[in-house]
Request: fold
Amino acid sequence: MKNFVKEVEWRGMIHDIMPGTEELLEKEMVSAYVGIDPTADSLHIGHLVGVMLLRHLQRCGHRPIALVGGATGMIGDPSMKSKERNLLDEATLQHNLECIKKQLSRFLDFDSDAPNAAKLVNNYDWMKNFSFLEFIRDVGKHITVNYMMSKDSVKKRLSGEEREGMSFTEFSYQLVQGYDFFYLYQHEGCRLQMGGSDQWGNITTGTELIRRKLGGEAFALTCPLITKSDGGKFGKTEKGNIWLDARYTSPYTFYQFWLNVADADAEKYIKIFTMLSKEEIDALIAEQAEAPHLRPLQKALAREITIMVHGEEEYNKAVEASGVLFGKDTADILRKLDEQTFLSVFDGVPQYTLSKDALPRQVVDLLAVDTDIFPSKAECRKMVQGGGCSVNKEKVADAAAELSADMLLNGKYLLIQKGKKNYYIIKFE
Reply:
């Protein structure tokens, strides 16, 4: 059995670890959990570090528990937040839970009959019938306000620039999370909680509650919060989070995100977000040092994680789609792209909208009269004669040629290329 701590240590995935954790993991099969916030019906790549910790844990023979915080999601964790979150209703939470389990199944084996099969739990199941009086008597009594106030997450909010303070709801969050650990310790034999470094205070409240109420010993392990080498926030783009659900982030955009990370980040991310071995990664790092322009690290990172999240078929489509912008003879590939991928590839390209009744139409009229892609018909004819104008990646040989509705990509688009780098989309409605 692989040593879990050593495995995640060389990958740069340990920030803090409670003494005795490694010894416990070497001695027996351990149940460990990571909490996941269900405020959306998809995970984003910010969740992936915790999910990868669980994946490695299961691969090393231990039992992963994914706790989806149906109850804590109704409160909102103050850690690293400057404002209180909106609270979710039960129906929304239930929908989010089902979607998240489906995504987690790509990383964890829930269906095995092995003793270390993964388990998904929802803390709403044990919190929903817990009365407030019972909670403050059975849980609150064992943790002092002084202890809770000493946590960084609380101190930062109370001394924050916005001076909005913290509601009692958020202040009580660490007690609720602490009780989760206590409950899983009692009912699932869970001895270890893992999470981001911002969770250390909440996790250790759980170990303290277990010690004070049961005299038991539980452990904590946190991973660093992932950063980008340029100081920007990991996983955030101008359009927001990179999601695991193809409805929110297309597999092409997902693939491109990893393909375009900086060299320094690629070396760090490939250890965290793939299952490649140390030997394989060291070989890729050496390859990158010799030929950085070939970007072997980024290509391997993008391949591994896109296949893990979206499957091999979507990965192959993303690679093909990437060739549309720069490759030759790509008309066939372009026609195969689904609408979401097509729009992802040409994101930011100027768009025109016309009625389908405008077709059929001569190239010169469509590009210089109906739209202003060319300032004049003469300019359009000149570019066509010079071989510098394409429609749907096929060179236009005659400016008087007719474009018809059966040429539309996905039944509604024409892709116009003017020169080498200027693209335009005409959408027909």
About this structure: The CA atoms of residues 139 and 310 lie 42 Å apart. The mean pLDDT is 91. The radius of gyration is 27 Å.
